[in-house]
Amino acid sequence: TVDLSIVSKGETHRFVVKVAGTEAEQQKGLMFRTDIPDDGGMLFAPYPPGGGAPRVATFWMKNTPLPLDIIFIRPDHTIARIADNTVPFSETPVDSGEPVSAVLELRGGRAAELGIDEGDKVNWDAPAQ
């Protein structure tokens, strides 16, 4: 896990999130999870796994029973797009709309509850090795 914060309208929102850094971890994501704490989630970083140039990210909700907010993060750590309250079990692709270097998944509706918007800054600690 890593500490992560999102700065929005002068307010800092803090989370402790799991890191999906490998291809296998990123393929599984939050599938099958039936509980996500208010201050929890999953960070897909680096995206794509193993590093490389930022690219358009595409996610889906197959085998995911809870709605999620999928937050797509640019290389400068600003939010490019928020796909809010994605539909559980949907196989419809959800994409970033532009190249990103990380993706954050939170409990569905959490971004709106906290007033998190596109352009807000996301910061996190490097995972322990």
Tell me about this structure.
- There is one protein chain.
- Helix content is 9%, strand content 41%.
- Strand 1 and strand 2 form a beta hairpin.
- The strands form two sheets. The protein has a seven-stranded mixed β-sheet. The chain has a two-stranded antiparallel sheet with strand order 4-7.
- The model has no long low-confidence stretch (mean pLDDT 92).
- It has two helices and nine strands, in the order E-E-H-E-E-E-E-E-E-H-E.
- By secondary structure, the protein is mainly beta.
- The radius of gyration is 13 Å and the shape is globular.
Number of helices: 2
The averaged pLDDT comes out at 92
Question: Roughly how many Å apart are the termini?
Answer: 11 Å
Q: Strand portion, in percent?
A: 35-45%
For the largest sheet, list the strands in their spatial order: 6-5-8-3-2-1-9
Q: Assign the structural class, choosing from mainly alpha, mainly beta, alpha/beta, alpha+beta, or little secondary structure.
A: mainly beta
Query: How much helical structure, as a percent, in the residues?
Result: under 10%
Coarse morphology: globular
Report Rg: 13 Å
Parts with pLDDT < 50 across at least 5 consecutive residues: none
* Structure summary, number of beta strands: 9
Keywords:
about 130 residues; mainly beta; seven-stranded mixed β-sheet; two-stranded antiparallel ribbon; 9 strands
Please provide a brief summary of the model:
The chain has 129 residues and is mainly beta. Helix content is 9%, strand content 41%.
